[in-house]
Amino acid sequence: MSSDAVSQQIDFPTVSSENSFRSSVKPQLSEDVSAEPTGTVFSEWSVIANTMIGTGVLGLASAFTATGWILGFCLMTVSALMAVFALHLMNSLSMSSTTRQVSWYTVSGLYCPWAKLVVDIVVIIKCAGVAVSYLQVAGDMLSMLLVFWSGTEFSESTVRSLIIVAATILMAPTCMAKELKSTTLVNVLALVTITYCVILGCVYSDADGGDDTVGIPPQSSFTNILAKLPVFIFAFTCHENMFPCATDMKGRTQKKLDFVAVSAELTGFMIFLPAVICPYLTFGSQVQPNYLQNIDYKNNIPVQVGYIALSIGVLCSYALQVVPIVRSAMVLVTRGKTISSPRKANAIFYIVAAVCQLVPMALAIAVHSLGVTFSFVGIVGSNTIAYIMPSFLYCMMVRKTGSKKNITFYLAVVLCVVSICLLPLCIGSLIQQIIAGTV
Asked: What are its GO cellular component terms (predicted)?
């Protein structure tokens, strides 16, 4: 049975086995393969912006405790510019595709086949890490509220675990979304709730309350800065969903895709600014990886609403991380082979989708430190998927197609080399900080 026939019978990922790689695609939801693109600039902007503006908005202020104002804003700006440039490279790769369907799998197959496995593993690590942070935040916020409201001596850790399990079950149907554009409404809802939390941080700010520093804080060190650097990278990463958005974009052009990329990153930057300035001014070196935990919630109804709003916001973003995990996991499980039996295709999809949600749930319950999650995912997942792979694949495209090596090519080379060098430096520093108990 052909893959097209299977696509018509079931609503789950299948694998194409066309002889020509140009027509073969990474396992996709059947609607992605058969339906005409209907995405607009707004709907794709909402996907990219919401992918980025999640828990990253909470951790930047904490990163400033190692950098101070000047270096912090420099790293923040450079991270945003590098993210935009990498998205531009991805959009160029999308426009070079001979078919509408574009993914990490197809692009890697065209220009560097051996990288297909690496890309999918990194997508899984990065997205799973972000999904873990979403569940951590929801579990922390809601467990604190429930224990406080109940007025009992329930173990906050136990309540946190139960909330994480309940949240995973609640979001399971959303993680089966047939198309990214079907999440537009929840994307906007998530952006609104997170914006409320940013406003909350501004309202309860005190310019004279913290021990913030203009230069590098005296208690900081070079390894401390390197351990926090991935938080800046993590905050501006949304690259795992750029290719699906390019596939779904109606009337796809480089200009449209670049506009989505720039507007999404600019939206994130503008929201991040007050989320950094107000908490760091108020709490200084004591600001938490989730700055809302610095604000007294027991006597403040608006703060309690903020806890609920933040939980809703991150859970609305949860599916945007799980769906790419499922897609990449299907590639690894099926090894690019055709699934001819609809029943077998259904079974494989359900099992893979279940595992891809159970693993983040288990990690979120086991790991309590949000700062460690930010740093680890930032350097291993975000750095690779946002900087290394887009720049590397772009360079391979130029090399294979014989295109002229212009300034974009050389900037891509620099981005790739710098990002690769950051891996051992930041990982080593993070491990040192974990051992020292400072993160």
From this structure: membrane
